[in-house]
Write a structure and sequence with these properties.
By secondary structure, this protein is α+β, with helices and mostly antiparallel strands. About 40% of the residues lie in helices and about 15% in strands.
Length: about 625
């Protein structure tokens, strides 16, 4: 599974029979101290995983394919191969803090050679700001920078509140990997560098405007952070120093296919000046992209356009060159009031990013205007120089062409579902997450008259260095429900029972996933061991059914943010959809992506189908049972 975006399932109020799983709570204490006491990620029983795998296949493959796969699974279990690999995985688990994390970083991210833009990096659209000019843009950006630096203070002083779920502490390691880090391209595999450990503390961010990069030192000579007013003045200097429009957009190189960018990177940094400039970007705490205004669109299309801009910048003509896509954190502030965040996925999953967003938005809202001027004049931010050789210019032109192709291929539709939010399913004792996931199943079935492999990411942060596993939302129960909704002979009480069973099954699968008992990462571990041992790949992993199971036409993620934001991510497969949703109390933000190059997918049509499904499911609830107040 390549280029996987994840989300936290931990805000959903998940329930297993007899057990209430509480939402995440945050307790102020030293977040690094508790890390050593976290449990290790378990290796699930092999027989259990194989049984759950066959159950996951039942709604998405034919009976003949399922029977063939059942025979392969029996051979895998009884022929000794599965047992040998399972024993090897258990040995690895005993010797390492987390048997999965290194393999996951490699296979999901660093080995993936598709561009990070669109294909792996998620974007977040923040609520639209009211400014429409450069002064408003600068003022907001200054407050945003101050807010992120205040968040960094918690990281530096190890005062970040520890998150707990059902009384158990969660791994906080990813919070320490999102600042001062950057992906670095390689010819065959990338790496991630983090400049926070064992080095003098970094004091600069990078700001890019009009395709030109600047180093902005955020500390005074006495070590204190710049005030919002000082940051505003420094951003003004950057704006005034970047008015030339004939600069080559070197940053667009980072949008390329990773092998292509790896070669271009080596060409670029042969020049000493270029190498120093690149290192300054890589070492910066984070990047702020001051974007030019995009073409105006209707209010209805606004969020969709901004979501696309956050994911790719709008193309070479607009803001795609105003990025360094390898940078872990890029905050985007447009002159027209649009703002958001793009993050490179390798170092961390969604929860730290969402917490950071909520923290910064709250910081900005609570921040009083600082009107005092600094007493000491500050040195102007340093402009980063690039020597563009003919070869580098050719690489840039190629990157522009490929980016424009990507921009035209990405189909984005953001739906603000305003009819109801998470309160409606909660009133009927249903998980909001399971309710939305079931609506996605119904929408897909209505469009394609079949079910598909569905990926919903679940956090493994109950375990040391835990990343994610997959909740496979397509089940026999979900198939029965969507068929029941389309069967005119079915009565509403029977449909309601099918819906309740579907959501209950989803809860149980979510519980299993966050407790390390899902199937996908276990199978990944067995495959990786087989590769490392240089043995022949077990037939169960070469089977057509396995390919179908790994082909996620629905690649989904819940974003549990307190901020009224929209997260978005590209599809995982060429003929699939990327779907992110943020259930608020009274509405749901839903972002759908697809590729225009696929004739069978359409983001707007799928978003409409999701809206219809949600409304039909609410009607089913209201027609059949009264809401429990």
């Amino acid at each position: 599974m390549l280029g996987v975006f994840v989300r936290s399932t931990l805000r959903s109020g998940l329930v297993k029979p007899g057990l209430r799983v509480r939402p995440v709570t945050r307790i102020p204490q030293r977040s690094l101290v508790h890390q050593e006491g976290l449990p290790q990620l378990p290796v699930p029983p092999l027989k259990q995983t194989c049984e759950r795998y066959l159950a996951a296949l039942e709604p998405i493959v034919s009976k003949e394919e399922l029977e063939h796969t059942r025979e392969l699974v029996e051979d895998f279990l009884k022929g000794g191969v599965g047992e040998r690999l399972q024993s090897g995985l258990e040995r690895r688990a005993r010797k390492t803090d987390n048997w999965l994390s290194e393999w996951w970083m490699q296979t999901a991210y660093l080995d993936c050679r598709m561009p990070v833009a669109v294909y792996t990096s998620p974007g977040v659209v923040l609520p639209r700001m009211h400014f429409q000019d450069r002064q408003g843009q600068m003022r907001f950006a200054a407050k945003l920078i101050a807010g992120v630096l205040d968040f960094k203070r918690m990281i530096d002083t190890d005062s970040l509140p520890v998150e707990y779920l059902s009384g158990k502490p969660l791994c906080m390691d990813q919070y320490y990997r999102i600042l001062s880090s950057c992906r670095v391209p390689g010819p065959k595999r990338d790496t991630v560098v983090n400049h926070t450990v064992g080095k003098p503390p970094l004091t600069h961010i990078t700001v890019v405007h009009n395709f030109q990069f600047f180093v902005l030192d955020v500390s005074n000579s006495d070590g204190t952070l710049l005030t919002v007013d000082q940051l505003y003045m420094q951003l003004e200097k950057i704006w005034n120093s970047s008015l030339q429009t004939n600069k080559e957009p070197v940053g667009i190189l980072t949008s390329q296919h990773r092998n292509t960018w790896g070669k271009a990177y080596n060409t670029l940094i042969k020049d000493k000046t270029n190498k120093e400039s690149v290192r300054s970007i890589q070492k910066s705490i984070f990047t702020v992209c001051l974007d030019a205004p995009m073409p105006r669109v209707s209010n209805e299309l606004y969020l969709s356009r901004v979501a696309a801009q956050v994911l790719h910048g709008g193309g070479a003509r607009w803001n795609s060159g105003n990025r360094w896509f390898d940078k872990t954190l890029q905050f985007i502030v447009g002159e027209d009031g649009t703002c958001g965040l793009l993050y490179e996925h390798a170092p961390a999953e969604g929860p730290p990013i969402v917490f950071l967003i909520d923290y910064v938005v709250k910081f900005i809202r609570q921040r009083a205007e600082e009107v005092r001027s600094p007493m000491v004049p500050l040195a102007a931010p340093q402009k980063l120089r690039f020597n563009v050789t003919p070869q580098v210019k050719r690489d840039i032109e190629k990157a522009k062409q490929n980016m424009n192709i990507m921009v035209h291929d990405l189909d984005v539709k953001v739906l603000t579902f305003s009819h109801f939010g998470r309160e409606v399913p909660k009133q009927h004792k249903m998980s909001p997450d399971g309710f939305v996931q079931t609506a996605l199943q119904l929408a897909y079935f209505r469009m394609y008259r079949s079910c598909c492999s569905t990926y919903e990411s679940a956090s493994l942060r109950m375990f040391k260095y835990g990343r994610t596993d997959a909740i496979r939302s397509t089940t026999v129960d979900s198939l029965n429900f969507v068929q029941g909704m389309e069967d005119p002979s079915k009565q509403n009480p029977e449909r309601l029972a099918l819906l309740q069973r579907t959501i209950q099954t989803h809860k149980e699968m979510t519980y299993n996933a966050i407790h390390g008992q899902a199937i996908d990462r276990h199978f990944l571990g067995l495959k990786m061991l087989s590769i490392e041992d240089l043995t022949s790949m077990p037939e169960v992993f070469m089977d057509t059914s396995f390919a179908v199971a790994q082909h996620y036409n629905l690649f989904t993620s819940q974003v549990g943010s307190r901020t009224d934001c929209v997260m978005c991510v590209g599809p995982m497969v060429p003929d699939g959809y990327g779907v992110c949703y943020n259930p608020m109390d009274e509405h749901v933000n839903i972002a759908v992506t697809a590729f225009n190059s696929c004739e069978d997918t359409n983001a707007a049509k799928f978003a409409q189908a999701v809206e219809d499904a949600l409304l039909d499911m609410r009607a089913l609830l209201e027609d059949t049972i009264p809401a429990e107040q």
